[in-house]
Prior knowledge:
Immunoglobulin-like; 3 domains; 6-stranded antiparallel sheet; 34 strands; rod-shaped
Amino acid sequence: MAINFPNSPSNGATHSAAGQTFTYDGTAGVWNPQEGTPVSTSTSAPSNPAAGDLWFDTSSGTLYFYYADGSSNQWVGVSGATGAEGSGAGVTSYANFAAFPSSGNTGGDLAFAQDTGAVYLWDGSAWDRMAAGSDESPVILTDPPSTHDLSATGSTTTVTMTAQDPEGFDIAYGIAYNTSNNARPSQLSADTTINQTTGAYTFTPSSTGSDAGSFKARLSASDGVKSSVRTVDISLAFDALGELLLAAGGGGGNSYGGGGAGAGGLVLNTNYTFTAGVTNTIVVGTGGVASRTVQATRGDNGTDSTFTAGSTLVYTSVGGGGGGGYPADNLGDGGSGGGTGRAGIADNGVSTQNAYGGVGFGHDGSAVTYSNKGGGGGGGAGGAGQGATTSAGGDGGAGKASTITGSSVFYAPGGPAGGYSTSIGSYVDGSVSSYGAGGNGGNYSQAASSDGADGVCIIATQQAATATTGSPTVDTSSRSGWYVYTFTSNGTITF
Length: 495
């Protein structure tokens, strides 16, 4: 028989049903019965009895009541039955609760369970325990999951736990939280509802991003005396909206009037959704090595940077093209193209950076403009490389400006080219230390070419990550209300 307990009871509240009174334990979140009169089971009468005690003589199958009339105290038999099962004066002894008859009973009939020593009263429709003997804890039939993720959309979710009582008593399901005074966790917008018939616990999550987090819920199944519990770790996570910047390694420059290297390709998405619970894997590309010998082949291309959500490759930033050498004509294509070395052919490295719907950036390097005067500048994420002048190598292409860190910074500028004599072109914005920058070409007499700069991945959200690897830096002060994660090496991040 199911018992309908009051909703939202206070600690210590009482409720009477089925011939028994229950008290609410607010800490445990369960209704506990007020104990009935214990029944002693033995072949001899208990010592030091008190008025009202019950004793079942297991040798004769007789139930006794300790009666005190003011002048004398004695055990009074209320059952004359003997044997494993039998009936006496209104009481019947059975091996266990399962053997109790479910029909043909008269209201007020008494039954005794030999295995537990408990006495039961037939209330006209069910057997109610009136005196407690030994009791076994409910058996959990269906275990709930050890962890449970709440819906980030605000939709309800359900966890089920079912139990059965060995003595056949009805199960009362309850819940408690690891919060102060068992208060409802902030991750829930409403009280958890419990279906007392099916053991289904229904959770209504908060839809407020600041309520993300976790709590422990202790689910209980009580037979009125003992409880069995299971603990579930429950989490609420939201998709994180934010920005993503991914720069590849810049190409290496070249010597002796060599061309400037192309910058690493750049992906800049200012409206990216990081799916809750998905591990994002980041690979940061490295800069290409410069060539520093006479009549060298072009500098090395930078390596790619990638961003993968779960198992899906989302973005690839292509490594920058290496700068052309003197008088080599094998300049590099890449995220941004490398520039041509002096006396090279009228050609240039081209950008191979996929546009990704307008969030990918790269530009071509410059061809030679004055034969034997200086190399062409490498392309940048924000503009193409520039041609040489009569006295200096070409300027590198402009980088791409972003405020992802809270300040306007240029990323992935193209490398300037070396001149015929001593003059090297300029970085239009930023310096060679800028993430993804192409290396500069060297002038004719100094072989002063430089390697490309390593790439970077920067992620900015208004929600803290739940886990990271690869030791990114975390800045929470430069951009108010934002978490800025900077990866200069491979790693992962999860929201």
